[in-house]
Amino acid sequence: MNAKEKSRAYFNAHRKSRLARGGYWRLDYGHVLAEIETLRPESLIDIGCGPGGFLRAVQKRFPEIQLNALDLSEEMAGETQERLGRSAVVTVGDAEHMPLEGGQYNVVTCNMSIHHYPHPQGALNEMYRILVPGGTLLLNDMDCAAPIRALANWVFPRLPGGDVKMYTRREITEMIQNAGFERWYYRKISPFSFLCTARKE
Ligand SMILES: C[S@@+](CC[C@H](N)C(=O)[O-])C[C@H]1O[C@@H](n2cnc3c(N)ncnc32)[C@H](O)[C@@H]1O
Q1: Sequence-separated (6 or more) residues with CB below 8 Å from residue 199
Q2: How many domains in the chain?
Q3: 49 CB less than 6 Å from ligand 1?
Q4: Three-state secondary structure string covering 75-104
Q5: Does the Cβ of 111 fall within 6 Å of ligand 1?
Q6: pLDDT digit of tens for each residue in the chain (201 aa)?
Q7: What's the domain range around 169?
Q8: Which residues have a Cβ under 8 Å from the Cβ of 23 and sit 6 or more positions away?
Q9: d(C-alpha 176, C-alpha 123), whole Å
Q10: What is 32-71 written as a DSSP string?
Q11: Residue with the nearest Cα to atom 10 of ligand 1?
């Protein structure tokens, strides 16, 4: 099985598990929500939404935002749809080849999902494509000290969940730039994670 097949099978089998409902990274949501508070977008899409915990927090705090989601796993997408209700548009699909029209969303979020993507440049190109001009990407994922990163990158292919790679700050910011984003700000938000805010001009 390749990484995507592993991710899909693993998350399809863990719809109701505690792990799939969010781990330590839920602590990062506050930082992402604070950015959303300043942006107050009309629409938002969460890529690699998992079981919808982040979007549920967005929905409770900003009920006026039109919510959308995409996930590779049918079960995760189904769980998100159930939790958010019918007003949310939830799509099953691959972040690297999104079955979505371009120029639609004011904000794209992606929390703890990009380390599952074997071709993250393709996903970032897609995130750029689906944003409206002036839209913002909020990208949150792992960032640990180099020895921990090296260990994680050795362990990842041996795990069942389709984890691929903990990308470096340099890799992330180069891919953001290659995707076409003109302004970005990468910051550590915990010893284990980063949040990168990038704007499509
Ligand atoms: C660790 S979970 C994070 C879920 C959620 N964002 C959260 O904050 O809890 C990773 C999610 O990314 C999804 N995923 C993995 N590869 C994907 C891909 N190529 N395209 C879309 N979603 C993907 C998985 O199905 C899973 O739901």
Answers
A1: 134, 135, 136, 137, 181, 182, 183, 184
A2: 1
A3: yes
A4: HHHHHHHHHHCCCCEEEECECCECCCCCCC
A5: yes
A6: 899 999 999 999 988 776 666 677 788 999 999 999 999 999 999 999 999 999 999 999 999 999 999 999 999 999 999 999 999 999 999 999 999 999 999 999 999 999 999 999 999 999 999 999 999 999 999 999 999 999 999 999 999 999 999 999 999 999 999 999 999 999 999 999 999 999 999
A7: 3-199
A8: none
A9: 10
A10: HHHHHHHH--SEEEEET-TTSHHHHHHHHH-TTSEEEEEE
A11: 113
Q: Which two tokens stand for residue 197?
A: 């805010």
Please work out whether the CB of residue 67 comes within 6 Å of at least one atom of ligand 1: no
Put simply, whether the predicted model's pTM sits higher than 0.90 gets the answer yes
CATH of the domain at 24: 3.40.50.150
Output the residue whose Cα is nearest ligand 1's atom 14: 48
Distances (CA, A) of 117 to 34, 85, 87, 197: 26, 28, 28, 19
